[in-house]
Amino acid sequence: MRPDTPAEHIAEAERLIRTATRYPEDQEPLLLQAAAHLELADARDRASSLYDQLLSSSPANPHLIKALQAANLWEYGHEAEARALISGIRSATPADPAPWEVIAETLEAHDELTASEECFTEAATLLISEDTPLTPATTALLTGRHRVRRLLGLPHDDWDMVADTRHTGPVPLDELHDPKRIWALGSDDPAELRAEIARLRAELGDRRAALSRPFPVAILHWPAAELAELLTAYPTLSAEYPSHAVHLAGIESSLRALAASGTHNLGIVTASVPSYEAFAASEKTSPASPSLLAEYATTLAARGKATPWPPSPTAPCWCTSGKRYAECHGNAPGGNVR
């Protein structure tokens, strides 16, 4: 069950902290996830301590950690320190979109709309060029910029038009980001007001679902050699994996079914027999137990080992066949999911 109450978020954070102790090579993603749960539980001082711990350990993503630290600090009264961190990140001009998005949204959340728009624009100018295809991360920058510019009442520019065309949701981006959307309804038409409330509830539900799942829903992928070794050592698992081809087809069909049901943030984690056996030992469970497979997949995803699914049509297929996804498992019945 996904964490919902503050106590459940704290329990999940403590589980992730224990896991980080057991797997120090994965400390950074695990502690970041733990800090996110502590923030959701309003234990912001503990989250801040985790950010400090990460920043003292030569992290791989220091700008992102500082951005998250700034957002957290501002929320519990340390505005000056948060502003200093944001200023330092902007001066450092990181090449990763994530810290830019976090600090721009932090400024937006505290009604610093002009500074937020400037921050989004700085990031777009630095990271987006005509020669570089947009990624989900850079598209998110343009979407956030579009939102803030609508709040400021600024006219559309070229990047706003790009954000409009990239948006795939059921509500057009201009309407979604219209600051007068609810005000304009007023109370003259209760039916329209009820429809707007229903739409906002749906949007809030999607947001809460994303926040409650800080790591992907992931499916386990056994490469052919690893699966053969697994079934030789634990033949009872052959009921789960009749053949490698069936296993691969099952991964794709399961992920498509999850996507069709509205589940977002999907991924694939690659398994190995030594890793699986070590996990079974840590859980004091036999590797021959089929029920352990899902727990192993979830733990790998929590450790930041998931590869996002689906790949783009021209990217290599996740199954490592060497073919493009569109020519391999992306060409399965039902067509490409993108």
Explain what the structure shows:
This protein is mainly alpha-helical. The chain contains 15 helices and 3 strands. It has helices at residues 6-22, 27-40, 44-55, 62-75, 79-92, 97-109, 113-127, 136-152, 158-166, 173-176, 190-211, 224-233, 244-260, 273-282, 291-302, and strands at residues 217-221, 266-270, 307-309. The chain has a 3-stranded mixed β-sheet with strand order 1-2-3, sandwiched between helices. Helix 1 (6-22) runs antiparallel to helix 2, helix 2 (27-40) packs antiparallel against helix 3 and helix 6 packs parallel to helix 8 (136-152).
Concise synopsis of the structure shown:
The protein has 338 residues and is mainly alpha-helical.
Helix amount: 55-70%
CATH level 1 class label of the largest domain = Mainly Alpha
* Largest sheet data: 3 strands, mixed
The overall pLDDT, averaged over residues, is 87
